[in-house]
Each structure stands twice: as C-alpha cells, then as structure tokens.
Amino acid sequence: MSLKIVYPICCGIDVHKTFVVACIASTNSKGVTTYKSHRFSTFTKGLNELLQWLCEHDCKDVCMESTGKYWVPVFNILEPSCHITLAHPKYVKAIRGKKTDKKDAKWIADLFKHDLVAGSFMPPLPIRQLRDLMRYRFKLTNFTSSEKNRFQNSLTVLNIQLASVVSDTFGKSAMNIMNKLLEDPQDTSFDLEPLLHGSLKASCLKLRLPWTA
C-alpha cells in the first residue's frame, strides 16, 4: 500500500549558515515524482532568487529545518508567498548513510509530500515581533537590576551607607550626592542642600552621616 500524496508540488529546504539547498518534488497524476534541486546563497539576493524559483515552478508548499537562527531570514522572505512548515531537525533526520545537502533536501521533500513532518507552531509575524521585543525588554530589565545590585554592593564595601538614610538609593537626591562624591572623593564637606529635593532638604545633617568620619 503506497502512501498518499498530500502535496503534489512541494519543496524541501536544507538550511545552512551561508547557503540553502532546495529540492522541489513534483508528483503527477500517475504517482511519478520528479525532482529539481538548486543551491542558493543566504544573502537577501539569493533568498529572493529562491522565492522566484519556487514561484516559477508553482511551488507554494515548503518544508525546512529550524536550524539555529539560520532559518529565520529564509522564513521571513518566503512567508508572504508560501505556506511553510518549520520542522525540528530530529523529525526530518535522514537515515544513516552517505549524506549530501541535496539528499537531505530531497529527504525532507519526500517526507513532506506525504505529510509526515510535524510542523512547529509559528505565530503570525506581529506576534513574533512582539515576542522579540518583550524578550529584549526582559533582558534589559534583568541587566538593570543586576547593575543596581552591583552598585549597592559597591556602596556597602566602601561603607557609604546611603541606603540607611534615603528610601531610594537611585532617587534624584541620592544620585546627585553620589555624582558629587565621584567628582572629588576626598571632599566630604561640600554643600549638601542644593543637591537635595523635597522632604530630604530637612535632613542635611542626617544625610551627611553615611560618608563622613
């Protein structure tokens, strides 16, 4: 019993850092499949040539490996014109033997034409962009928190106990004081009042205690 052909015209793409190898599998009404393979650069010009090549062969169904981050530019260029199935490499791994890029691309196409590839979930482009933005924001937030902790630890080591007399070590008044101290670490008798804001102006003497002998 032969397997059902789900995608009569489809393409398998083997993705690498500097190039991709694409193999189009075209199956006629008699079940005979012919293959066309081509190698393209991963520069934008090369990927646009890949898209044009697929369109010339009326191939709208594409399957490729999610190799590192190398698949992302390929996906972004093909997405508007093709239906893309993104597969984890372990699900399209070729059988043991002498492997070539063309054989790998053909193997992916053969699996895909029978709908034997489990595709990964890919949200729409606006959601992917939002995810990237939120990941970057999360990274920056963690970085900021880490640097604030490093700064507070430095104050502790230097016995500048600013946190004992102000509620926010990174508030405007506290940062003014720190900047003044950095200008001349030996001068601890500077005029404090112009640096303070709000209710802290009434605590000049108390505020001088953390860094004076």
TrEMBL record:
MF terms (GO), sorted A to Z: DNA binding; transposase activity
Transmembrane stretches, start-end: none
Domain Transposase IS110-like N-terminal: 11-157
Classification via Pfam families: DEDD_Tnp_IS110
Record GO biological process: DNA transposition
Name of the protein this chain belongs to: Transposase IS110-like N-terminal domain-containing protein
Species of the source: Fontibacillus solani
